[in-house]
Amino acid sequence: MVRWIAMALIITTTFFSCLDPGSCHSCLEVFPDIEYQCMARNFSEVPVDIPSSTQKLDLSFNPLKSLASRSFSRFTGLRILDLSRCDIQKIEDDTYQGLCNLSTLILTGNPIQSLGLRAFHGLPKLQKLVVVETNLVSLKDFPIGHLMTLQELYLGHNSISSLKLPHYFASFSSLQHLDLHLNLINNISDGDLEPIKMNLNLTLDLSQNPIQYIHPGVLKGIHLTGLILRGNFHSSAVMEVCIKGMTGLQVNKLVLGNYKNEFQMTNFESKILDGLCQVDIDEFWMVVPSDFPSDSYGFFRCLVNVSVLHMVTVPLEVLTNLPVFPKLFSLVFTNCKFETLPTLPSTSLPSLKELRITRHKDLTTLSDLKLPSLELLDLSQNALNILSCCSYNNFDTDKLKYLNLSYNAQIMLSKNFMGFENLESLDLQHCQLKGHNNFPVFLSLTKLQYLDISYTNTHVQFENIFAGLSNLRHLKMAGNFFQGNILQDIFKNLSQLVTLNISYCHLEKIPQITMKSLHQLQVLDISHNNLQTFEPLIFRPLWNLQVLNCSYNSITALDGQNLQSLSETLVSTDFSGNPFDCVCDHQIFFQWVKENIQLLNRSKPMICQTPSHMKDVSVLLFDDLYCQMKKTIIAMSILAIMLVLMALALVYKFYFHLMLLAGCKKMVGEESTYDAFVIYSSQDEEWVRKELVKNLEEGVPSFQLCLHYRDFIPGVAIAANIIQEGFHKSRKVIVVISKHFIQSRWCKFEYEIAQTWQFLSSHAGIIFIMLQKVEKSLLRQQVELYRLLRRNTYLEWENTNLGRHVFWRRLRKALLDGRTKRQKEAAE
Amino acid sequence: MKIFMTPLVALVLLCPSCSSKWTTHTACKDDKLELLYQSCDPLQDFGFSVDHCNNPLSENVNIRFGIILRYDINELFLDINLFSMQKSIFSFSYPVCEVDFPKFSFCGRKKGEKIYYAGKIHNPSFPIGKGEYHILLRLHNENNFTITCANITVISY
């Protein structure tokens, strides 16, 4: 007993200790045989149970301490190796030998103290090396000279104090990104960047280095794709000198500025940037400067030849006295301090094609904009309140193709975009839109291909809201409302539509007609509505539908039969988040889901909501077999009931045949010639001949009756015949009572003898048949008969189908009683 | 024997869940205000302190904050949920780092890198009414991986 408890304890301990990160020695299999995640598993060496075919291995946050030679030689297919913060202090020679496919090596956060000269040997395809925060002091001793395939080298957050690039950088012809941010580099001296002179594709990040001095002319002849200098200069004087020192540099993108959370330099005077007149810049970014000179002309003076200008978080309220930017193509102001749109004279910006003024929380008023060559205007994420949008009065820019007014306060659509005939993209999402339910506001936008009016508080009432948009390909209108929560016929002229998003619209019904003309539609999102069900046939006109998102509605099931026609073109669907009713009635739908599981690879699992025993169970676990069994059981039981009923009917119908076959009656000793002697009045003879004789003697089983007109022997006294032929040779006596019977003396005689006979033979032998109703007074004349009829059961003749049927059955049964087997055989 | 084993088994079962709860630290304490925090990231704890606990909080608060990143933060978002009497009374999401808009020097830092921030943060100054408030604070990156998660308790006397 104790042993068992101890064992259970050990097992539970091992199991539950795995829940505690860092103590369980097994990796997460992200993709079998391809990707393994072993982050923080407390490994002190490379785990042995990882397959050698692995391509991506994350060993970060494990206390590996040191890496011995050929630690990874097993993983010849490895492409990405993450050794972040593994407390690696020593990397021995040939540690990575054998990793001939490795393209990314990450060593962030390791306090490397000892690096073998051949530490990075055997990495012929390495493209990205991350040695951020690794106690690196100098580039001179860093043994990476042979890594000629390097494209990105991250050396940030170290203690490198000199930018003197070793000569081997000259052989890094593919190097595109050299990140030296947050080091201790304080100057750029002669020859520092000489090895990269021939590399024209390099971006150099020197942010957060305390640069004091750039030797004038040191960058002459250097061509950089990018140079980032943020948070470098601690005073405006230093900055001015350093920028002057950059003379002769050719740079595609120059980023200057600071950080919001770092030391802010004061006294930003316009002359600081004077040195830039000697620098060839294509794209200039000024990011989070502490200040902006009052003389904006002076600030931009040396930037007039740039083609792209970004001003990010610049304390700029007004823009006056702009110089002429003959080549400026794109101008961006992000998060500056504008309260009205800055005046941008077209004479200063003759080539401007893109203007973005975004993220100004105080920018509420739109002023007129006259930039005739403008093609893109982005005024998103401001607080604009546009009272009359949009016509050439607002923006006299007849070449405009892209207009983005999203994430503003309120836009009154009172003009119908006259003068915007070239517009291809219009984004109005997350603004309060008004006026577009009154007239076809987009009527003149015949070239528009993209329209976003998501979350604009639009209450669609007007059916022609999209009139004129004959070339629209993408329509997003999530988060709006429809009249009566029913989708209206608003898409009728959008025959070119490729994507449509009507999610979060509280829709309860999608009538078939609404999708009729969307033959080109490929992507449809109707998620997060209140659809309870819909007929899959509504998607039949969508011949090109590839992606269908119906998630998070109130759908319990769909018509599975009609879904079949959809799956031909579908590539992806999502039905998750619906309260599925997992009952056998919807079996076809769930079967369709199972058969088309490849379409659901991007969706969350589909979960049953009802019935209660299936709650929270995946739809995929819905058991078809159970439904089939249920069906079979029902069919079988119906069949069985039918059979039983049929058998019963047959038994009923062929009861007498069966009785004969079974021979269930016991043998009785005595034998008789006749089955019954019939006592009747001669007045009733017609009935006896036509009904009684015909039915009993010709039917099954056939009975032999004794009838006086036929069976009495001539020449013998009637009384003798009655006794000899009638009673002696018959088992039973049938008495046919009628008015005539009571009046007949012979009948009375015969009946009295029968009674005596019955008394003598002591068995129930008389069967009364009441042929017609006899009046009580008449019956009372025959006291004995009256008494007998009151005491005994008699048969009553009824001239209806059912009555006759019952009558004959009862009579046959009564006659069969007491019949011997032989008689039966004879009868057969 | 059974009596001896039962608490032992219970201890084994419950212990991993105890270890994932980090201790509650005090960020600052004053006569009128107390700020406590507890990491709700199962992977790690972090350090945080506020220089002066004034009520109302001054507009520029000096804070210190240290953490080791478990994921890259090319983009970083801050979600704040304020609870009072177990009810969410305020929720707020703020983009800290965006690809085209990296305002702070720690934006773009890499997995495994240490962040230590000591400096001012701007926050609107408002008096804190008497009572106990709970703030759920979560920083996550562009892939929705948690960078930091903290349950902060503000007690105003």
Automatic annotation (TrEMBL), chain A:
<dbReference type="GO" id="GO:0042802">
    <property type="term" value="F:identical protein binding"/>
</dbReference>
<dbReference type="GO" id="GO:0006909">
    <property type="term" value="P:phagocytosis"/>
</dbReference>
<dbReference type="GO" id="GO:0014002">
    <property type="term" value="P:astrocyte development"/>
</dbReference>
<dbReference type="GO" id="GO:0071346">
    <property type="term" value="P:cellular response to type II interferon"/>
</dbReference>
<dbReference type="GO" id="GO:2001238">
    <property type="term" value="P:positive regulation of extrinsic apoptotic signaling pathway"/>
</dbReference>
<keyword id="KW-1003">Cell membrane</keyword>
<keyword id="KW-0391">Immunity</keyword>
<dbReference type="GO" id="GO:0005769">
    <property type="term" value="C:early endosome"/>
</dbReference>
<keyword id="KW-1133">Transmembrane helix</keyword>
<dbReference type="GO" id="GO:1900016">
    <property type="term" value="P:negative regulation of cytokine production involved in inflammatory response"/>
</dbReference>
<dbReference type="GO" id="GO:1903974">
    <property type="term" value="P:positive regulation of cellular response to macrophage colony-stimulating factor stimulus"/>
</dbReference>
<dbReference type="GO" id="GO:0006809">
    <property type="term" value="P:nitric oxide biosynthetic process"/>
</dbReference>
<dbReference type="GO" id="GO:0036120">
    <property type="term" value="P:cellular response to platelet-derived growth factor stimulus"/>
</dbReference>
<dbReference type="GO" id="GO:0023019">
    <property type="term" value="P:signal transduction involved in regulation of gene expression"/>
</dbReference>
<dbReference type="GO" id="GO:0035666">
    <property type="term" value="P:TRIF-dependent toll-like receptor signaling pathway"/>
</dbReference>
<dbReference type="GO" id="GO:0046696">
    <property type="term" value="C:lipopolysaccharide receptor complex"/>
</dbReference>
<dbReference type="GO" id="GO:0030890">
    <property type="term" value="P:positive regulation of B cell proliferation"/>
</dbReference>
<dbReference type="GO" id="GO:0070427">
    <property type="term" value="P:nucleotide-binding oligomerization domain containing 1 signaling pathway"/>
</dbReference>
<dbReference type="GO" id="GO:0001875">
    <property type="term" value="F:lipopolysaccharide immune receptor activity"/>
</dbReference>
<dbReference type="GO" id="GO:0120163">
    <property type="term" value="P:negative regulation of cold-induced thermogenesis"/>
</dbReference>
<dbReference type="InterPro" id="IPR000157">
    <property type="entry name" value="TIR_dom"/>
</dbReference>
<dbReference type="InterPro" id="IPR000483">
    <property type="entry name" value="Cys-rich_flank_reg_C"/>
</dbReference>
TrEMBL record, chain B:
<dbReference type="GO" id="GO:0031663">
    <property type="term" value="P:lipopolysaccharide-mediated signaling pathway"/>
</dbReference>
<dbReference type="InterPro" id="IPR014756">
    <property type="entry name" value="Ig_E-set"/>
</dbReference>
<protein>
    <submittedName>
        <fullName>Lymphocyte antigen 86</fullName>
    </submittedName>
</protein>
<feature type="domain" description="MD-2-related lipid-recognition">
    <location>
        <begin position="37"/>
        <end position="154"/>
    </location>
</feature>
<dbReference type="GO" id="GO:0045087">
    <property type="term" value="P:innate immune response"/>
</dbReference>
<dbReference type="InterPro" id="IPR003172">
    <property type="entry name" value="ML_dom"/>
</dbReference>
<keyword id="KW-0732">Signal</keyword>
<feature type="signal peptide">
    <location>
        <begin position="1"/>
        <end position="20"/>
    </location>
</feature>
<dbReference type="GO" id="GO:0031666">
    <property type="term" value="P:positive regulation of lipopolysaccharide-mediated signaling pathway"/>
</dbReference>
<dbReference type="InterPro" id="IPR039945">
    <property type="entry name" value="LY86"/>
</dbReference>
